[in-house]
Design brief:
alpha/beta, Rossmann fold, 6-stranded parallel sheet, 22% strand
């Protein structure tokens, strides 16, 4: 059984920075524990990083969400300090948008049987990547650990979990 843990955008700007939320701060301990368990079990781990350039405000996303965040090289772009020691040995994928085609290709090429997602934001990047993975690997078991995810709001987090459930993505610890 080939397993992958995907840690979506656990970056300073999404936890306690420009777009941070109390809910994101509250999942940090759970995510750290999940990553340590995955390492101990020998699972592959991928960290995604929302990555924007100086022209962010000129992009479609920047015009619709005019809050500079995750600007490459800034403190807000970095993976949170609590996970810094866990990056070693994991793949790190920078992505300019919500979902990562590179993540889907990596998962498909490696033929994972089980993929679990954690991170932020449930209702934007987690759902986008979960659906891309489900499309790339329709027979793989794709799951999301709700206790290791936070959305923009508690309501949008819950709505995203329900939407993923309808797309045959398993929701754990809801």
């Amino acid at each position: 059984m080939k397993e992958l843990l995907v840690v979506v955008d656990m970056q300073t700007d999404f936890v306690n920075g420009a777009l941070g939320t109390e809910e994101a701060v509250n999942i940090v301990e759970n995510v750290v524990k999940k990553v340590k368990e995955a390492k101990k079990c020998g699972k592959d781990i991928v960290f995604t990083m929302d990555t924007h350039g100086r022209n962010y405000l000129e992009t479609q996303e920047g015009r619709k969400l005019p809050v500079p965040h995750c600007m490459k090289g800034t403190e807000g772009w970095k993976i949170i300090p609590e996970l810094q020691s866990e990056i070693q040995g994991a793949a790190v994928l920078e992505k300019p948008s919500f979902g990562s085609g590179e993540l889907a290709r990596l998962a498909e090429e490696n033929g994972y049987d089980r993929i679990q997602l954690t991170g932020v934001c449930t209702d934007i990047c987690v759902i986008s990547n979960a659906l891309l993975l489900k499309t790339a690997l329709p027979e793989a078991e794709i799951s999301v650990d709700a206790s290791c995810c936070a959305g923009v709001t508690p309501e949008s987090h819950k709505n995203a979990l329900e939407a993923m459930k309808m797309c045959q993505i398993q929701i754990e610890n809801a």
